[in-house]
Design a protein that fits this description.
single chain, about 650 residues, mainly alpha, about 0% strand
């Protein structure tokens, strides 16, 4: 079987599915649902078939559109090239696409114009899959544009609320600024190298970085930073995550931002090959640290379920960027591991938020409570996701975060640079703040008393629970069986990230890399996939279980109790109370950490100005950040 055709068949199949849904599925929901599930299942099946040849056999799959192979050493056609790194992101993409499709069947059934929804959904899916499969940098840009406009339209899909249209407009403007940076960089590269193939660009640019190519690097790095929603390009993302249907918020968090991360990795490790420069490593890690810290502090201040998750998604991408920037074996492995874990636990949390919104009609933490009795299966899935993102053992988030901590410490010891100790402290503090934030969400949504308005709340349908169960199992499985995941997926993807010569030779012919004098980036520090001692996480796990047991035991009498209207008005019977009725203090989900916000009032005042809601401010920040990156790269690389 010629499986080299599978990537292009999968990508074009998703685009074809979008056309078929619009033509045949707009009127009949059974035809529409069948097309969507069939197309996404086929795409996932075809791409997962490539796991063996790529991960086990070590092959790199290449395919030239229309059989336009290189002529006289120059790539003039569009090529698809999938190594272990690309295949790693392919797996995340097809898994997320399929689960979101299944979830959407019931979650979106109350909406109108679903033919348009699924058309845009399949276009978004096809563009992300095409982006991680392509070996042509302009084709990557085309996929980015399709992805951006499909994402904008889906953000505004429920356009009866003005806030959704505003969120889509912000996404559109800032997204187009990022696309403009990317396109400008591609134009500059083509002007210098006269090719758009990433493998050939890498062979030409090796040892030949000019002012033009350095400018292209800065522009494209900023452009991909916008697509990955790192700070300071993150503000429109929070609005988009909150406004889009939850099934799409899951896709945004699971794969759309990973597309930007993938582009940055290809850019820095392969095309320009600058990640062996210590100053570039510090720049990337700094972006990651700032992103994780601002993301989590903003999450603590939210009282909308989905918006809180949006800022946490931004924060967790900061971990990924930080780990990749370390540029050691363990650093890249932990970054890829956390990227996969983020797709799983954040996708799970968004699906749980969607389930709550579906059953209750609100995502306001102040209007929720006691849903553990009404929605016990959703509660269990949410707790697994919350434990995972908070970095508690033995869940997958702990596995990757622990490796990131170790990587930062090893980097600090190896280089003697105090900056990495600072980054390590920030990473640990952010993890603690993440746990605090999800304590707030858990109490506000699932524990405490149930408001009278929610007394008829019930569990969501099976097709919505199925994706949550699958992601819950993966969160637990990837944490417990971390060695299997590491040896079979992460190590091959990491080695592929550093193995530039094979990537070049596969597309441009054997010996091309050697002729250009290219050697693989040296893998610093560790040479094995090592972790923590099982005794350590076992002790931590028992401690966490004991704490959860005590909290559950104390609150079991009142949890899920439906308040009467009279009791609801009486603050003494609220979720939190203190003193007598005349002096009680109600602490709802939005102000559980009011003391923290008060003590950090100066910081949050600055953040309020930073998140002004004005798209002109966001665009200006993107331009200013790009200017700073340009200045930095010129100083470091020339």
């Amino acid at each position: 079987m010629n499986y080299t055709h599978f990537p292009v068949i999968s990508v074009m199949g998703l685009f074809l599915g979008a056309f078929l849904v619009e033509v045949f599925g707009s009127k009949n929901k059974y035809i529409r649902n069948t097309i969507v599930l069939l197309i996404t299942t086929c795409a996932a099946g075809l791409m997962l078939y490539l796991v063996k040849p790529v991960f086990i056999d070590g092959q790199i799959i290449s395919y030239w559109m229309g059989n336009w192979e290189p002529v006289e050493g120059y790539a003039i056609g569009i090529g698809y090239e999938i190594d272990a790194l690309g295949m790693f992101f392919v797996i995340l993409t097809v898994l997320t696409i399929w689960l979101a499709a299944v979830y959407s069947i019931k979650y979106m059934e109350k909406d109108s114009h679903l033919g348009h929804y699924y058309t845009l959904f399949l276009m978004l899916s096809g563009s992300v899959l095409g982006l991680v499969c392509t070996g042509d940098i302009f084709n990557m840009f085309v996929m980015i544009e399709i992805m951006t406009f499909a994402a904008v339209a889906l953000t505004a899909f429920r356009n009866k609320k003005g806030a959704h249209l505003e969120a889509a407009f912000k996404y559109l403007v800032v997204g187009c600024v990022g696309s403009g940076f990317t396109l400008a960089g591609i134009v500059l590269l083509y002007m210098q190298c006269h090719t758009l193939n990433m493998a050939q660009l890498a062979s030409i640019l090796h040892g030949n970085l000019t002012p033009v190519s350095v400018l292209a690097l800065a522009l494209m790095f900023t452009g991909f930073g916008v697509k990955s929603f790192i700070v300071p390009f993150h503000a429109p993302a929070a609005d988009a995550y909150m406004s889009a249907p939850t099934s799409i918020s899951m896709v945004f968090s699971g794969i759309v931002n990973k597309a930007g991360v993938y582009g940055m990795i290809r850019l820095l490790f392969v095309v320009f090959r600058v990640m062996d420069i210590s100053s570039v490593q510090i720049m990337v890690v700094l972006f990651g640290v700032v992103t994780m810290f601002i993301g989590v502090t903003m999450a603590l201040a939210q009282h909308d379920f989905k918006r809180l998750l949006a800022f946490h998604s931004i924060s967790q991408i900061g971990y990924v960027i930080t780990a990749v920037g370390i540029c050691s074996m363990k650093g890249v492995v932990s970054g890829l591991f956390h990227a996969a874990n983020h797709t799983l636990f954040k996708g799970l949390l968004f699906l749980c938020a969607g389930a709550v919104l579906y059953s209750t009609g609100t995502a306001d933490l102040d209007k929720l409570g006691g849903l553990s009795k009404k929605m016990p299966k959703t509660t269990i899935c949410f707790l697994i996701g919350a434990f995972s993102i908070s970095g508690l053992p033995p869940f997958n988030g702990f596995a990757s975060k622990w490796m990131i901590y170790q990587s930062l410490y090893d980097k600090a010891v190896t280089t003697g640079n105090f900056f990495y100790i600072f980054a390590l402290v920030c990473a640990v503090v952010v993890s603690v703040m993440t746990l605090a934030s999800f304590i707030k969400v858990t109490q506000a949504v699932f524990f405490g008393q149930t408001p009278a308005a929610l007394k008829e709340t019930h569990e969501v349908p099976f097709l919505m629970r199925l994706p949550m169960w699958i992601m819950s199992l993966l969160c637990v499985g990837c944490g417990i069986f971390y060695r299997f995941t590491g040896n079979n997926l992460l190590l091959p993807a990491m080695k592929s990230t550093f193995n530039i010569t094979s990537y070049i030779d596969k597309m441009m012919g054997e010996g091309t890399a050697a002729a250009s004098g290219i050697e693989n980036i040296t893998i610093h520090a560790e040479t094995g996939f090592e972790y923590w001692e099982p005794v350590i996480w076992l002790v931590l796990f028992v401690t966490v279980l004991l704490a959860v047991f005590i909290v559950t035991l104390i609150g079991r009498r009142d949890r899920g109790k439906v308040l009467s209207t009279k009791e609801e008005a009486d603050g003494k019977y609220a979720t939190f109370f203190s003193g007598e009725k005349s002096s009680h203090s109600h602490v709802a989900g939005s102000d559980l950490f009011w003391g923290f916000k008060r003590n950090w009032k100066g910081y949050f005042n600055v953040m309020q100005k930073f998140h002004s809601g004005n798209v002109n401010d966001y665009s200006l920040m993107a331009v200013c950040c790009c200017a700073l990156v340009i200045v930095f790269t010129y100083i470091v690389l020339l």
